[in-house]
Amino acid sequence: VEVKIEVVIPEKERSKEEMSPNGKASPLVYKVNGTARHYHLEEHPIASNPYHNPKDVVEASVCHVKDLENGQMREVDLGCGKALLIKESGEFHAVGHKCPHYGAPLVKGVLSKGRVRCPWHGACFNIGTGDIEDFPGLDSLPRFQVKIEKEKVYIRASKQALQTQRRTKMMAKCISLSNYNLSSTNVLIIGAGAAGLVCAETLRQEGFSDRIVMCTMDRHLPYDRPKLSKSMDSHPEQIALRPKEFFCTYDIEVLTEMQVAAVDIKNKIAVFKDGFKMEYNKLLIATGNTPKALSCKGKEVENVFNIRTPEDANRVVKLATSKNVVIVGASFLGMEVAAYLAERAHSVSLVELEEVPFKKFFGERVGRAVMKMFESNRVKFYMQTEVSELREQEGKLKEVVLKSGKVLRADVCVVGVGAVPATGFLKQSGINIDSKGFIVVNKMMQTNIPGVFAAGDAVTFPLALRNNKKVNVPHWQMAHMHGRIAALNMLAHGMEISTVPYLWTAMFGKSIRYAGHGEGFDDVVIQGDLDELKFVAFYTK
């Protein structure tokens, strides 16, 4: 059997991609039904002139060679756009100056060991290639040519790249999609969050050209979920991670409003709720969490929300405007929603079982400082109590009754009391699940079943920086990395996860950024001024 694999690469991308030292793309191997197939991406020698359209090119002298010391970065203007000029180990590099995730100025980030890290959310880029090496975000940085002439540093760049400030990595496409049986796929991804999408994109970036199907209970294509509580009036198309055309171009099929009810690991079949069955060769389970509901009297009353979708978030904003809002749970979701609605609602009340918000996560002192900021922004706290009843008038929420006896007026209620892993459908599958419902994986994101991988909020995995302690880290950044590691190991790369967990939250114009995994800390060392919210806290044990 002769297999012809053709990878179509846009002209602009050909030149930008890093080749192996001999100027040819390295061969890739993946296994299908146990047999290894070797294939090459189309081989192209490195072009002597990488910019095919001279009108799209700009070249400018940006500084003297002595203007930058080793380890320094500078934003430079080329007339029609800016670039980030970097000097490290005596060499100059030039890449895009904005982080493709949310547009942060990378010149304010950290340069270390050939990488620049975003100052806002921790995405990390290789300064030699521009490639993204840690998340969040999906795109890499454009890389520009640097030359030195007569002690001056020149940058040569594509105008388009200077304007877009992002580069999507070269990807393979699926060969002869029309020949496939509808009910069978090589890779099936259950869940269309960050982990699922990054897995699919990484497979295509690595040259995988077989069928990929993603399925999701959501009605939308993958979207930026953190914005549901941080920017609640965003519409689905505004927060989409990729446009519809992207999925068509790279043959990543997405089945929306499709729920998997069971997985038959012996026959490699996923059974959907509507009875449809799909065979797979490799499986990624990235189903995330299901929010916990209230168990009190009146929980079925109208206008009580768990925020799961853009529609939920939009509806809450509409109902809350100039009305009374009660938020149950001082979780990240609860606190972000309170901050977002504080200016829009007539009143915002927050009910929490603990004595201060974020106590288990940030410790009591940091929690109190955050609480003080909320109180100065008209958010009222009812701590160390919980909801005993939701009262209605004509079917709609009217009052929230607390166990302390206090009755709060409420037109809308948002519930943020935590979540449980969405893994109920795997109970009889034979896939190893711990007592809390998390899927147990190794450092390669593999479950106990060969060919079955899991990623994102629904897993526990060994965390390198905590002596391989099995942890659950439900961070947006970590879900991206899980998806990437799973994809590389589907292709037998033997890649282990070693990322440092990172999360951020934003409230009232203040951003809290957290790196590491401080679970089980017994002391907090604080440097700076907590009252001014200009501080660093170290969680120690």
Automatic annotation (TrEMBL):
Keyword annotations from UniProtKB, A to Z: 2Fe-2S, FAD, Flavoprotein, Iron, Iron-sulfur, Metal-binding, Oxidoreductase
UniProt entry tagged with the keyword Cytoplasm: no
GO molecular function, one term: metal ion binding
Residue ranges of every copy of the Rieske domain listed in the record: 60-155
One of the protein's GO biological processes: execution phase of apoptosis
Gene3D superfamilies noted in UniProt: 3.30.390.30, FAD/NAD(P)-binding domain, Rieske [2Fe-2S] iron-sulphur domain
Any single GO CC term annotated in Swiss-Prot or TrEMBL for this entry: mitochondrion
One Pfam short name: Pyr_redox_2
Domain of life: Eukaryota
InterPro entries per record: FAD-oxidoreductase/Apoptosis (IPR050446), FAD/NAD-bd_sf (IPR036188), FAD/NAD-binding_dom (IPR023753), FAD/NAD-linked_Rdtase_dimer_sf (IPR016156), Rieske_2Fe-2S (IPR017941), Rieske_2Fe-2S_sf (IPR036922)
PANTHER family xref list: APOPTOSIS-INDUCING FACTOR 1, APOPTOSIS-INDUCING FACTOR 3
UniProt similarity note: Belongs to the FAD-dependent oxidoreductase family.
Protein's name according to its UniProt entry: AIFM3 factor
Organism: Fregata magnificens (Magnificent frigatebird)
